[in-house]
């Protein structure tokens, strides 16, 4: 508690509020007025009217005088992570090897962030594109095998809290939209130590994933593949894919 209080005192409120304004922009709110920005961030209208023009002067926003929207400069904030973080660079060669050995698959490494799965490294097969193939893409954790793998490493109370925050949307006729169904998949993954998930976000797509730990035992992410079902049984896909994921998981343990 003392450490948390000291951290708050040492923090710079202006930076925190400015980043909250940037994060307030979303697909449902691509343009914000000062009043809407205030509502979405919890800031006062007066504060929002200060931060929006400031971010515009810095090049992160553009405006028509009333509404504000993000500029491509915001991408610098995210790409600074990819340019500096060690984890994506460490896992990338393993993803390339998996894609090469399996052929026709996309190998990915994802982490949880605020309940979503974020892809921080990917090796995309040239034979297909997926809805979320872009590096840095965020998807609801329940829709991706890697997301389920990471949730399975959390305790029941944490999973229950995550489930209570979710609004489940059906992307295909197979998407699980009931909390008890999603919890059952997470519990099964916890028992098995791996995940196989089918047609949750895209039809005729299958995902297989395993969580990855560091040498200290901390779960640092999950490695996964996305591949077409194409008449292949789940058992056959597991037999073909899981040994390679396990091999990469074991090798990464000594590097992270």
Label this structure with key terms.
single chain; 256 residues; alpha+beta; Arc Repressor Mutant, subunit A; Beta-Lactamase; 9 strands; 46% helix; 20% strand; disordered N terminus
Explain what the structure shows.
The protein is 46% helix and 20% strand. With 256 residues, it is α+β, with helices and mostly antiparallel strands. The chain has 2 domains: 2-74, Winged helix-like DNA-binding domain superfamily/Winged helix DNA-binding domain (Arc Repressor Mutant, subunit A), CATH 1.10.10; 85-253, GAF domain (Beta-Lactamase), CATH 3.30.450.40. The strands form 2 sheets. A 6-stranded antiparallel β-sheet has the order 6-5-4-9-8-7, with helices on both faces. A hairpin with a 2-residue loop joins strand 4 and strand 5. Helix 3 (34-41) packs across helix 4 and helix 8 runs antiparallel to helix 9. The longest helix is centred in the C-terminal third of the chain and has 20 residues, at 234-253.
**Distance N to C terminus:** 29 Å
Contiguous uncertain segments of 5+ residues: 1-8
Percentage of residues assigned to helices: 40-55%
The outline comes out as: globular
List SSEs in N-to-C order.
Answer: HHEHHEEHHEEEHHHEEEH
For the secondary structure, the number of strands is: 9
Strand order of the largest sheet: 6-5-4-9-8-7
Instruction: Indicate the radius of gyration in whole angstroms.
Output: 20 Å
Question: What is the secondary structure topology, with strand pairs?
Answer:
Layout: H1 2-10, H2 13-23, E1 31-32, H3 34-41, H4 45-57, E2 61-63, E3 68-70, H5 75-84, H6 86-102, E4 106-113, E5 116-123, E6 138-140, H7 145-151, H8 156-165, H9 179-192, E7 195-198, E8 205-213, E9 219-228, H10 234-253
Antiparallel strand pairs: 1-3, 2-3, 4-5, 4-9, 5-6, 7-8, 8-9
Helix pairs in contact: 3-4, 6-10, 8-9
């Amino acid at each position: 508690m003392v450490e948390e209080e000291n951290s708050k005192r040492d923090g710079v409120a202006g930076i925190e509020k400015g980043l909250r304004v940037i994060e307030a922009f979303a697909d449902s709110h691509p343009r914000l007025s000062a009043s809407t920005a205030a509502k979405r961030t919890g800031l006062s209208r007066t504060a929002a009217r200060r931060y929006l023009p400031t971010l515009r002067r810095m090049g992160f926003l553009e405006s028509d005088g009333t509404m504000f929207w993000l500029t491509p400069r915001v991408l610098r904030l995210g790409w600074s992570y990819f340019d500096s973080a060690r984890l994506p660079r460490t896992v990338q060669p393993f993803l390339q090897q998996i894609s090469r050995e399996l052929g026709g698959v996309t190998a990915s490494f994802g982490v949880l962030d605020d309940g979503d799965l974020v892809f921080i490294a990917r090796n995309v097969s040239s034979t297909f594109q997926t809805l979320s193939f872009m590096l840095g893409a965020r998807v609801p954790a329940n829709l991706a095998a890697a997301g389920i793998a990471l949730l399975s490493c959390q305790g029941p109370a944490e999973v229950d809290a995550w489930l209570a925050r979710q609004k489940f949307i059906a992307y295909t006729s197979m998407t699980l939209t009931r909390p008890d169904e999603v919890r059952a998949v997470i519990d099964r993954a916890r028992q098995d130590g791996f995940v196989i998930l089918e047609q949750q976000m895209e039809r005729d797509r299958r995902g297989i994933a395993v969580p990855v730990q560091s040498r200290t035992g901390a779960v640092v992410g999950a490695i996964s593949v996305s591949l077409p079902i194409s008449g292949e049984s789940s058992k056959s896909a597991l037999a073909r894919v899981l040994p390679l994921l396990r091999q990469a998981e074991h090798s990464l343990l000594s590097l992270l």
